[in-house]
Amino acid sequence: MDRLNRKIAVILLLSLLLAGVSACANDKNTQIGNVQNTDLSAETSEGETEIKPDLPDITFDGAEFAILVSSNDEAGVVKNDFEATEMTGDVINDARFTRNAYIEEKYKVDIVDYPQPAGHNGTALNAIKRSVSAADFAYDAAMMAGYDTCALASTDFLQDLNAINYLDLSKPWWDQKANADLTIKGRMFYTTGDISTADNDATYAIMFNKQLVSDYRLPDYYSLVKNGTWTIDKFIESVVQVHSDLDGNGEYDTNDLYGALLWDDTVMGMINATGDKCCTVGPDGEILLTLNTERVVNMLEKYFSVGFDNAVCHTYQRKNWDGVAAINMFSNNQALFFLRLLLDVESLRSMETDFGILPYPKYDEAQSEYYNTVGSWHSVFMCVPKVQENLDRTGILLEAIAAESMKVVTPAYYEIALKGKYTRDNESSEMLDIILATRVYDLGWYYQIGTYNEQVMNLLRNFKNDFSSMYKKLEKSALKQLERLNESFAEITG
Q1: How many domains does one find in the chain?
Q2: The whole model's pTM is what?
Q3: Are both 157 and 228 inside the same structural domain?
Q4: Of 195, 274, 367, 424, which is the most buried if we count CB atoms within 10 A?
Q5: Least confident of 430-434, 439-443, 481-485
Q6: E strands within 39-87?
Q7: Are residues 334 and 409 in the same domain?
Q8: Within its chain, how far is the Cα of 73 from the centroid?
Q9: Contact 325, 314 (CB under 8 A)
Q10: pLDDT per residue as tens digits for the range 382-435
């Protein structure tokens, strides 16, 4: 498509998106994806100042802006935030197309994405390493799986984003939660924000079946969340009430009814739901091991009290999991709760029974807020290879793409698709606001410190609640790993 036709497409789709956002928004200030943002229609009608990136008026003579794209995913599908070759009628694709076309026209560049195979197999990681080592400038930026970006950062293959001219991570189109959790020794090597929707998809959440809530006369969970009393104890009280051997064969299997469908990774989510992390960046900028706390021990004890009961909870990855079995069970009204990712909300769009969405429960009512994990396996982060052909150009274009994404892509994903198309009620939209505003990026999971990420999941997999002995057994090696990691970051120069 030539630039004139793209420009026409931009104008038409942007008008539609703004109309959609205006219709969906309930008030002037709405949480749109990663940031607290003033509603776009309110800005237009009331003449308020629009937040714009502070960028020079410059063009780049048709230069290619090359973005390597990769991710981890069980289905083998690469999460690609830049692929949009034409208008298709899909609202998110068309929003990405519109954003890309606008940036290409404004800066006279050609945005080209280079997908690498999905899976934590080193393909994307090695592509960046080869490019940096050869100084061939193959990629200006990358959107990659969290494990790979972490490995590249600690071995000095990535730019410090804070040091790139024109890239301002304090701006609202960048995720401020990521800034707080991922800055190491004052440096930020990878991040996310409105430039990506993959971070939203990777966020943990709980879906619940409204029909079973009615049948079993269970609480109004939305009210519990909003008044701050949605806790692990309330979760357990509900879970134990809903279970039945539906086929009467004397054993609990995929044909029966459960209080909850549990994913292995939920253990990491429950740990973070306390407000604690496996690892935290300390005041001196070093990564600290902070997993072994009283709150974590108590939370796991409570969670496992129902999680280990096969008549109450179905740990669906242990039973020939094919990737869709749990979704089918939840869709067939075989569980009150389904603990998974926001990614799976779209998979429930054909479910006949109404469902709602909840954040992970608090440890107790005294806890100030909810905390929802951005999964380590499913995470995708934006990063910049260390060797650049034109670093200023990279900073300008990433900042421009992110800012335009906040205006066009995030409203399409969040207000029109996720809120409007897939969720069933206004309260679920409120829950999405809470979930996405209280996300946790845990460096302990991303760097796989002490293999604790796998070992805490093994507690659920093996129905063995021996957290304290497991932690102690691995603590020495975990601390040595952290020592080496912190030394690596200390040795990295600009």
Answers
A1: 2
A2: 0.89
A3: no
A4: 195
A5: 430-434
A6: 63-69
A7: no
A8: 13
A9: no
A10: 999 999 999 999 999 999 999 999 999 999 998 787 887 888 788 888 999 999
Give the Cα separation of 118 and 71 in Å (integer): 5
- Rounded Cα–Cα distance for residues 317 and 265 (Å): 10
Of residues 107, 104, 126, 108, the one with CA closest to residue 117: 126
Domain CATH for 105: 3.40.190.10
Do 315 and 221 share a domain, yes or no?
A: yes
User: Please, is 254 exposed, middle or buried when counting C-beta atoms within 10 Å of its C-beta (0-12, 13-18, 19+)?
Assistant: middle
Q: How far apart are CA 466 and CA 210, in angstroms?
A: 35
Span 346-363, pLDDT tens digits: 889 889 999 999 999 999
Exposure string for 398-409, b = 16+ CB within 10 A, e = fewer: bbbbbbbbbbbb
What is residue 322's predicted lDDT score, i.e. its pLDDT? 60
Residues 342 and 364 in one domain: yes
| 223 plus 339 within the same structural domain | yes
Residues 6+ apart with CB under 8 A from 207: 330, 337, 338, 340, 344, 345, 348, 355, 356, 357, 358
Residue ranges of the alpha helices (H) in 383-451?
391-407, 409-410, 426-437, 443-446
Rg (CA), the chain: 23
Residues comprising the chain, all counted: 494
CB neighbour list of residue 308: distance below 8 Å, 6 or more residues apart: 460, 463, 465
- CA geometry: angle at 119 spanning 118 and 120, to 5°? 140
Identify the residue whose tokens are 């390493």: 129
Q: Minimal CA–CA distance to 141: which of 163, 162, 111?
A: 111
Going by C-alpha positions, the residue among 301, 300, 328, 298 that lies closest to residue 316 is 328
pLDDT in tens, 215-227: 999 999 999 999 9
Is 321 found in the same domain as 193? no
Residue 356, CA distances (Å) to 45, 153, 434, 465 in order: 33, 38, 14, 31
Which residues does 473 contact at the CB level (< 8 Å), separation at least 6?
A: none
Sign (positive/negative) of CA torsion 362, 363, 368, 371?
negative
